[in-house]
Amino acid sequence: MKKSDITKWINNNYPHNRLGDDSVQGLHLKKNSNSISWRLLYRDSIGKQRNIVLGRYPSMTLEEARKRGRELYAEIIRGNDPLRQRDEEKAKAANTLKGYLDEIYTKILDTKKSGRETRQIFDRHFSHLFKKAMTELNARDITAWQAQMIDNGKAFATQKRAYGALKTLLNDAVKRGVLTDNPLAKVTLDKIHESEEVHLERKSKRSYLTKEQIHQLFAGLDKYQEQKREGRRNSRAHGRAYLPNLDNLEFVDYVKPFVLTMFYTGFRNGDVYGLRWEHIHFYEDSATIHKTIEKTAHKKPEAKTFPIADELATILQIWRVQNANPKSGYVFSNPEGERLGDTALKKPWKKIKEFSELPDSLDLYTLRHNFASWLVMNGSDLLTVAKLMGHSDIRMIIDHYGHLQPDTLEKAVSESFAKMFA
Q: Quick count: other Cβ atoms within 10 Å of Cβ 246?
């Protein structure tokens, strides 16, 4: 084989999709629809024909392919099968936590509404165990992990949810025959009772916005939009006149309607990312959202109905018209119409906080706490608040927001006895 032969073969002067080398036995070029690769054909110890890819052409030159081919043949003569070694390494990798997660379990998660969030749980909490074989996971790993979670201030409920996701993965591996049994089946978490200091610190993170901060937030959203418009004007004035004019649009992009949807519904980020036009129902004098809560979809797949504030109904109707009145698809999507990535609001939210002069530590999730807090402070029934937050009972509302309505129990007792003796 000469370099000129390769050129002629690539230009289809030869009819076959293979071009063999006359210097190294079994070495050849294989042409596929979108690539050309160097391969080595050989027989293993039991006489089975094997074909191993050496590299792509032209990244791997003829000289490099011949050198690699000779090296592999020397290994084969000594009884070492390069493909068998690769298969063994691949099988070993597949039995690690990351291997099973990437090769099998993520595909299963992709079929579930809460799958993306579950995958994030693994990346966020168990990446230090990714290279470990699933069979080698043990109680020491979980004890060390829980200790680290406690040091990081993670509530027991968060620990329990993350550990439950890990055990569910291992049970799935058992069901599919990858594991004979779950190595963590009998390993439980230690129930840690929070100190008063930790409990108060955790509660403090569930802050809400003051009236002044709410005005600042809305002003920051407008400043964000104006900066976008100014940037577009500059682009159009300097050689990019083909870009759409943003001056006549109510919303320069998805950011403002996304943030306001969180503000007016108290939805979690994921539920706004997953919001579809099919979920929203506009009526003559009202509107509702009817959807399954993503975080609890694996336990409660039934959809729930949430009323929409008039302000948000107007915002969503304008956003819908601005996007050519779609009847289906994601309300907030990327240019291809697909669901936004989970970090799509990260940079815009940081910019909005700067414009609003709000604390940099303020999380987007605070808008959910703000929604619940103001409902409670304005005297809303706690069960109603729980339902609007997507909870089935009021335990979490009492735990996290009950202190915002301190006179509720006292009032209930005094009114009850007042009526009794009236």
A: 19
